[in-house]
Amino acid sequence: MQANVRRGKRAFWLSATAAGVVVAVAVAVSYERICRRVVTLVLLHEADRLCAELDWKPAPRGDPPVGLRGIGTKPGSLTLPAGVLLGGFQFAPLGPDFWKRAAQPLSRTHRGWLESRYFSPEDVLWQIPEEPFSRRGKAVLGVVFAKTLCGSAGEAGEASDPWSFPPRLSRELLATWARPAARVPAVLEAIFELVTSDFQCLPGLTHDDDYIWRAVGESFCEALEARDWQAIILHASHPREKVRAGSLLLLWGHRNQSLAQAQARRMLDDPSRWVRIAAAGILASTGDSRAASILAQGLQEDLWRVRWWCGRHLFALHEVKHHALFQKHAAQEPEPRLKVHFANWMSALIRHFPGKEWTTCPPADVALEAGALDAFRGSVGGRGCVVRYGRMAYAWGDTAKRADIASAVKPLYTHFLFRAIQDGRIASLDDRVDTTELRLRALNPDLGGKDGEITWRHLASQTSCYGVQERPGEAFDYSDFNMALFFDTLFFPAFNVAPHELDREVLHARLTDRIECQDDPTFFAFQSPERSGRMAISVRDHARIGLLYLRQGRWGTRTILPLTDVQAATTSPLPASLPRTKGEPARMIPGQRSLGGGSNQTDHFGSYSFAWWTNGVDRDGRRHWPDAPHDAYAALGHGGRRALVVIPSLDLVAAWNDAGVEGREALNEALKRLAAAVLPPTGGSASG
To answer: Which residues, in sequence order, are bridge partners of residue 636?
Structure first.
């Protein structure tokens, strides 16, 4: 009988991999026992990868590594011996995705089920070396902490993944192993190793940055008591640099953030670069930019997790001057995961939105040359501002003064037309306007009742030929009678508001309040209902509208206007072949008012897109603004004296009023100077 037992044990140790799988199925009497064996195999596979990562020499087959405890055999604990776990058996043939497949049955289980039937504090503690001060020990300890200190990640009692353990286990682990004073340095070093090491056996940690801080920063810090914090603060002056750095990382989770900040400031001059980097990151996370230069230097470190730490906290400062630095590292970073982060940080810095006040910065921070902007201002005059990367980088005159913008308001009519279609108030751009303004049907019977064919598209593109003899769509007629009809028919019948409600119910509620305009824009620039439709707006608020369109209709996390509508409005110029009206008059609705001017005021030059002026090509093949970027578009009033300019390729918005710019040539010169102020990318560095 004893001989049979010895032969059975020998066979087990010689074929642990196959036996583990076969036994898991053969002896299983329930689904729970099968899942238990699956967990064992997952642990085996991860331990093997950890050994390879650390170049851990396997112990002789059958003998557990020196310093490791054996696994308990009581009900509820894993039953394979430690020698199998770290005994040198290779599971590489299972493939890197094995753990994902093996863990699938557990991902649907309840937190209490996992806790009560499969894991106990002893199952965790056996993995911890008795002497954890070597890199191996600290690495294993870091793995254990990562797997046990994430109990707060689940919601409503459910485990967020197969390795989420309840906070109770965190507290028991802390009480039984980490709290003794002699082991505090090892714990702190383990935390540092966890942050700076890249173990492939930690799929959740190495691919989701915030997971680490939920694991270490929440569950562990919640379990700490006052005496623990005192020990951690005391070890901030420990002789070993990684202990000091680890103490800072844990202080980051202290409820009293001023304590952590004060400690971090004191440690900015620490002789260890690890400590300085940890301190700089903590300060940056609170918005303190004094340590930015340390983080910028840390982007050159060999360990990619350290580079990630530095980049993450440099980004937390939200200073656009770091854009060039992220751009440089996005191109040069060898670690694919971090390369993606640099690209995302760079994009996020660009896609900034102002709050109730504009975020301002020096021109150099957004790669603009101040002297060139001075020249641009000199050619424009009046008052205005320049916005890049969502920040106001240059301004002159009284940017808060509200004033009429003349025809530069017309793109907003189209904006609200698209909104009316989105709201179901109007069927489509090609819906006929005479369903709203019935008097159009009786006009000009001698011309075939042509005005009954006018659509919303015709009004928005000034091709309605309202008041001239061509049929709708046959010619372009830049007419303030057309635009007055557009405004009056859209805002009052379609939106069903009275004139005194127009600003509050439509302009503010659907646009300017949502982008947090500061100076109370109004559709009544001349304070008279009879002259409604002329907008008074400050240049800084007008620039917000430009930024909304630059960001493709989004403001922060909200969509104000769908992307397709923004693109249609700004990139659909009339064909150059469309003729300009001959100007022969036709009857209009009796008492038809004008927005201020007459009809047939200008040609479209192949550049008129739903009331926006684009940089198109005219009938003679000439670019509208030959010295400006081809993707530039603008809302123009009085020939350019009042303007909003958007240049997507340069991420640039400019607005001005009461300027000296008038006509295509003058506007081309102004846009040329504006574009010349943009500095070429240099991949520069951050400054402290």
So the answer is: 643
